[in-house]
Design a protein that fits this description.
The complex is a heterodimer of chains A (about 260) and B (about 375). Chain A is an alpha/beta fold. Chain A has one domain: Aldolase class I (TIM Barrel, Alpha-Beta Barrel). Chain A is built from 12 helices and 8 strands. An 8-stranded parallel barrel of chain A has the order 1-2-3-4-5-6-7-8, surrounded by 10 helices. In chain A, helix 5 packs across helix 6, helix 6 packs parallel to helix 7 and helix 10 crosses helix 12. The longest helix of chain A is centred in the C-terminal third of the chain and has 17 residues. Chain A is globular and about 40 Å long. With about 375 residues, chain B is α/β, with parallel strands linked by helices. Chain B folds into 2 domains: about 150 residues, Rossmann fold (3-Layer(aba) Sandwich), CATH 3.40.50; about 210 residues, Rossmann fold (3-Layer(aba) Sandwich), CATH 3.40.50.1100. Chain B contains 15 helices and 14 strands. A 6-stranded mixed sheet of chain B has the order 3-4-14-9-10-13, with helices on both faces. In chain B, strands 7-6-5-8 form a 4-stranded parallel sheet, sandwiched between helices. In chain B, strands 1-2 form a two-stranded antiparallel sheet. Classes of the chains: A alpha/beta (about 260), B alpha/beta (about 375). At the A-B interface, helix 3, helix 5 and strand 5 of A face helix 1, helix 8 and strand 11 of B. The structure holds pyridoxal-5'-phosphate. The site of pyridoxal-5'-phosphate has 20 residues of chain B, from helix 5, helix 10 and helix 14.
Amino acid sequence: MTDDAPGALEAHLRSQRDAGRKLLVPYVTGGLGEHWLEVIEAMTAAGADAVEVGIPFSDPVMDGPTIQEASQRSLDGGATPLGILGSLEGLHVGVPLVAMTYYNLVFRTGHRRFARSLTASRVAGAIVPDVPLEELDDWSRAADDAGVETVLLAAPVTPDDRLARICERSRGFVYGVSVMGITGERQSLAESAAVMAKRLKAVTDKPVLIGFGVSTPAHAVEAAAEADGVIVASALMRRLLDGASPEDLGALVAEMRAALDAG
Amino acid sequence: MSEPSPGGRFGDYGGAFVPESLIPACQELDRAFRSAWGEQAFHDQYEQILEEHAGRPTPVTDATRLSERLGVRVLLKREDLTHTGSHKINNVVGQALLARRMGKHRVIAETGAGQHGVATATACAMFGMECVVYMGEVDVERQALNVFRMKLLGAEVRPVASGSRTLKDAINEALRDWVASVESTHYCLGSVTGPHPYPWMVRELQRIVGDEAREQCRRILDGTDPDYVVACVGGGSNAAGTFAGFVDTLARLVGVEPAGGAAVGRGLPGVVHGSRSMLLQDEHGQVSESHTISAGLDYPGVGPEHAHLAAAGRATYVAAEDGEVLDALQLLAVTEGIIPALEPAHAVAWVARAAGTEDLPEGSTVLVTMSGRGDKDAQQVMDILG
Ligand SMILES: Cc1ncc(COP(=O)(O)O)c(C=O)c1O
C-alpha cells in the first residue's frame, strides 16, 4: 500500500470528514459479556463512523482500571484473539472495524497469520500501541500485504520531526493521544488534547482522531474542534461493565453523535 | 557481553516495545546513560558511593565446609553483605545518579521481594528524592518486613491488586505511572528487563559484581578462573552482572530459574514489558502466572540478554524446585553460617543437586553469587518449616 492509495478505512473516514462530518469512533472490548456484538451494531446504528474492537491482553499497560477490568472479564469468560475475530466474521455493520490489541498476541499468533485473520473478519485496521515506529517493520509488512491499515499513535511528548514520520507511516487515520497517561474517564479534557490535534493537523491530511479521556458529549465536541473526530472507550466500557444494555450504549453514542453534529 | 545494537537488540531479543508516550524518555535515558558511562568522573562517583555507603567491594568467601560436603569447591560472591542486603543497590545507585543528572526529582520502582524497593527507597533518601514503589499484594504480604523498611526510608508503597498481584503486575502499574509522569519522573527498573536501554544499562550497573569476582577468584585460585559461574535468574540482573565478568573466560555460565517461573527453560519467545525475550505464555500469547516461594524470582519473563546467551549457547539455564531451595537455604546456613535469601538459595540448590554429576563434576570450582541475605525471608521460611 502506498500513500497515494488509501485503504478502505482511510477512504471511508476521509469521505465522511470531507462531507463535513466530525468522526466518532467508539470502542468495545471483544468478548465482553454476551452482547458485545450487539453493542457494535447499536453503536453503528447510533452513528459511529468506525468501531474499535479491543482484543484483550493479560497485561494492558496503556490501559486504566476500566479497560483493564473489561479485558480481564473478557479473558475470564474464555475470549481468545482468533475467537473474537471469528465472531466478527458474521457481523455486517457497514462501517469499518479497527482491532486494538497488544503486540504479544500478534507476535505469538504470527504476523502474517494475525493479519490474514483480520482480513478474513473484514477488520480494516489495527492499533498496536506497544509497537512504536522503531519496531514497526515486521508487523507493517504483514499488515500491508494483507491490506490491513496500521494506525499509529502520537503522544504529547512526541517531537515534531517524529510526529511527521508517524503521520507518514500511519494508515487509516492518526491516533492523537490527548494526554500523557493511560486510558480512563476524566473530569475534563486535557489541555494537551487541542495542542495535539493542532500539531497533527498541521503536518498531515490523514484523518486525525483524538482519544484517551474523551468521556462526555461535551468532551467530544471540544476535542473535535481541532481534530477530525474522537475515539471514546472507557466511558462506554464503564457502563457496559455496570450492566448497561446494547441499547443503552447505542443511546450514549447517539448523544455524542448529536453533540458532534450540532458542533 | 557486548553492547546491544542501537535499537537495543541482543541477537533476536530486546528492543523497545513501548507506547509512543514513553519513547522520548527511553531515548533520553539511553543518551544520558551512554554519556555518563563514558565519563571517568561518573564511574568514580558511582564507585565511591558504593564503597562509602554500600560496603563495596564485597568479599568472595571460600565455602570450605559446604565444599567438603558437596565434593566441589564452592566460592561465594557475597552481595548479601551489601548495605540493604542485596545486589540491587548497585543498580539503584547508578540510576539515582542518572535521575539526578536528568533533573528528575521523583523516582518510581517496582519490587517483588522488596529488595529493589528497599534499595530504591534508600538511594532516594540519600539523594533527597521522592520515591514511590509498586508492589503486588501477594508480595506485600509475604515480604512484610521490606514493606515496613521502605516506609521507614520515606518511600510510599502502593500495593497492586491487578492480575497475579506479584512482580509482573507491579511492573505494569509502574509503567502506567510512568506514562503519566514521565516528564518529572525516572522509572528505576530493578532488573535487566524492560525496554532498551534498561537491559543493557542494568547489566552494566551490575557488572561490578562480576568484575570484582573475577579478580577475587584469580587471587584465590592462583590466577585461574572458576570452572562454573552460577547465579539465580528472576529478571536476571545479578546473573547478568556476574556473567559479564566471566563471559570472556572459559567458565561455564549457569543461570538457575525457579521451576515455576522458568522463562528460558520453559517459555517461548514473546514481548512483554517492553522487550522481546523468552516468556511463559499460553498459545494465544496471554502471559502466564509464575509460581514460586521466591517473590524475587516470581516473574514469567526474563531479561532479553539471557534469552540471547541461551540461544547462542554461551550460558545454560536450569531450574530449581521450591523444596530443594528450602533444603539449600538450610544447608548453607548450617555449613557456612550464611542464611541466604530464597533467590540465591536457588543457585545453591542447583549446585547441591548437580555436584558430582556430569553437569558439575567432582572437583570442579564453582562461583555462586549470593545475591542477597535471608532476613527478609525469615518469617516466610519459619511459617513453611513450622
Ligand atoms: C536477593 C535477590 N536475588 C535475586 C533477585 C532477582 O532479581 P535478578 O534476577 O534481577 O537478579 C532478587 C529480586 O528481588 C533478590 O531480592
